Amino acid sequence: MASENPTASEYIKHHLQNLTFGQHPDGSWGIAETSKQASDMGFWAIHLDTMGFSIGLGILFLALFRMAAKKASVETPRGLQNFVELMVEFVDNSVKESFHGKSKVIAPLALTIFVWIFLMNLMDLVPVDFVPRIASDIFGLEYFKIVPTTDINATLGLSLSVFFLIIFYSISMKGFGGFVKELTLQPFNTPIMIPFNFVLEMVGLLAKPVSLALRLFGNLYAGELIFILIAILPWGVQWMLSVPWAIFHILVITLQAFIFMMLTIVYLSMAHEKH
Q1: N or C: which end of the chain has fewer CB within 10 A?
Q2: What's the pLDDT score for residue 207?
Q3: What NCBIfam families does UniProt report for this protein, alphabetically (predicted)?
């Protein structure tokens, strides 16, 4: 940090600030050195830490599952293969129970969402000062966050991808006219109620990506904030509080990945239904 002895408020604000790359007011491009510079960069700024860890954990997910597939053995299955088979079977059963259409995309999509979000959430268990201290001492980076799902931009990106799939499958299964009728002629199937139906259905449709993004972001952001607050306390108290909270947080990060996956399956199942 810029200050060797930061106050509690400065410490919290520092750990909640992303490594931001964007255009400075003078027209030059670079990394923000203060939180004000980051906010002045506006909409087109990029959070390098969020992008880096999201992509890196996605590559890790692909590499692990590819390794398990290449070394798969029917006679002597081992640890990684057993874990991957457990994940695939778990997701496959969830899709069979909740998805009522026919698609070869939904199960792989659900598996990707669950494992990828779980890995991103899992970074919240890394001590709050460990990686940022390395980034500061070795690379001279003032700000560095390692939990992508505590960035609203990442969770909105995930939820908007699901939203576009909902629109795509709704039009593919029902046709454009059927999709428009779904938005205008329900729940009241009469022409005079079309404006009311449209507003009601659009609110419900737009609430899906917003709820997906905010639920995941809110839970992980709150969890990260609690870890940061614990880190401010004396060393002995930190261990008394951080270990139980970390154990409980394992349930939170798993549950949030599961909820995001299940809601995605349910929303896409609804998109496949014809009224």
Answers
A1: C
A2: 94
A3: ATP_synt_6_or_A, PRK05815.1-1
Q: Beta 46-47 vs 29-31: how paired, if at all?
A: unpaired
Tens-digit pLDDT profile for residues 139-197: 888 899 999 999 999 999 999 999 999 999 999 988 898 889 888 888 888 888 888 98
pLDDT per 10-residue tile (average), the chain, 275 residues: 73 91 90 89 92 96 91 77 89 91 89 96 93 90 93 96 94 90 86 89 93 96 94 86 91 96 94 78
Q: Please state, in angstroms and rounded to a whole number, the distance separating the CA atoms of residues 250 and 230.
A: 17
Q: Is 98 annotated in the active site?
A: no
Q: Tokens at residue 228, please?
A: 């940061």
- 170 catalytic? Reply is no
Domain range summary for the chain, segments of one domain joined by +: 8-272
Q: What is the model's pLDDT at position 255? A: 96
pLDDT of residue 4: 65
Provide the 10 A C-beta neighbour count for residue 274: 9
Residue 211 known to be catalytic: yes
Q: Which of 159, 197, 219, 242 is catalytic?
A: 219
By the 8 A CB rule, do 91 and 114 touch? yes
Give the pLDDT of residue 3: 57
Check if the beta carbon of residue 21 is closer than 8 Å to that of residue 9. Answer: no
Of the candidates 98, 136, 215, 269, the residue annotated as catalytic is 215
Cα–Cα distance measured from residue 60 to residue 72, given in angstroms and rounded to the nearest whole number: 18
Q: How many CB atoms lie within 10 A of CB 190?
A: 8
Give the Cβ contact number of residue 222 at 10 Å. Answer: 12
